[in-house]
Design brief:
This protein has about 290 residues and is of the alpha+beta class. The chain is about 20% helix and about 40% strand. It is built from seven helices and 14 strands. The termini are close together. The relative contact order is 0.24.
Length: about 290
């Protein structure tokens, strides 16, 4: 599929901001099965400084400084991407989950060593209870991808998607207790569960197709930024799972960035001098153009 995607963020302030600085994770990345055909930013007022870079995880970043006094800042990221469905291994034929940690420490395999960094607790995935919740999906000897998919299915069944009841600071254990949240909560929850068992999992940010095929319901997370996770399978690599929608991510998911958790890939981080109270408005459009 070829997608045309637009992500507009508008900051409105009570009074003028004299200077603002922002770090953007809005430029999408190439990866297996995904090719970025074109990308561009529109920023109003125009930034004094605009500098592109690559972060530790290989994500595209843009640093902006706006020095013109403003009470409104508009940032639009637009791009076109070609996405192909990923071929994934048969879940029941993947290695037992207990073998994953040994595979990650293979000094001769750079991909395995890269996965190792996603085993450790990160600021948004700290939990005392996630391990206990995960155990039902990980009996001894169960294939790792089969277990991860079962965990995804349980999160989808046990938790209710409900906006406005959590924010990015809501602890995982509160989400576990109240059994509701949004896509970033469910991604963080499954990541915390996997890491509690010393299994690598990374947080993925991106977009989801807004127009489902005829006869199918619209996916949760459409018309907004979306979040899911990827789990590492020895001998294969990363497989993206979407617990919000209970599916293996395919050609309807468009990846922007990945990291340990939301903090590594927040779409826009920044500081402003002045401005007072602020309001943020976000609009996303994912438009499929045609099939490859």
């Amino acid at each position: 599929m070829i997608y045309e995607i637009s992500h507009r963020t508008t900051f409105s302030y009570a009074w003028n901001v004299s200077i603002s600085q922002h770090l953007l994770h809005l430029a999408p990345r190439d990866k297996p099965g995904q090719t970025i055909l074109q990308h561009g930013f529109l920023v109003e007022p125009a930034p004094t400084i605009s500098q592109d870079s690559i972060d530790f995880f290989g994500n595209n970043t843009t640093y902006l400084t706006v020095e013109e006094p403003h009470n409104r800042l508009n940032i639009v990221s637009s791009f076109r991407a070609a996405v192909e469905p990923m071929v994934v291994p048969q879940p029941t034929e993947t290695p037992p989950w207990e073998q994953t940690h040994a595979a990650m420490t293979n000094q001769a395999d750079p991909a395995a060593l890269d996965a190792l960094q996603f085993v450790f607790v990160s600021p948004f995935t700290s939990s005392l209870d996630a391990g206990a919740y995960a155990e039902a999906s990980f009996p001894a000897g169960r294939p790792v991808l089969d277990a991860a998919i079962d965990l995804m299915r349980r999160i989808h069944a046990d938790f209710t998607y409900e906006g406005g009841v959590t924010d990015i600071s809501t602890p995982i254990d509160q989400v576990l207790s109240e059994r509701r949240g949004v896509c970033q909560d469910f991604a963080h929850l499954q990541i915390a569960c996997m890491r509690a068992l010393e299994l690598p999992a990374r947080y993925v940010s991106g977009y989801l197709r807004t127009h489902p095929p005829e006869g199918e319901e619209k996916r949760i997370g459409a018309d907004a930024s979306h979040a899911w996770l990827a789990v590492w399978v020895p001998g294969f690599g990363w497989v993206d799972l979407d617990p919000t929608n209970n599916l293996i991510a395919g050609d309807e998911h468009v990846t922007v960035a990945w990291g340990r958790d939301y903090g590594d890939v927040s779409p826009i981080n920044g500081i402003v001098l002045g401005g007072g109270a602020q309001n943020v408005d976000v609009a996303v459009e994912v438009k499929p153009l045609h099939e490859n």
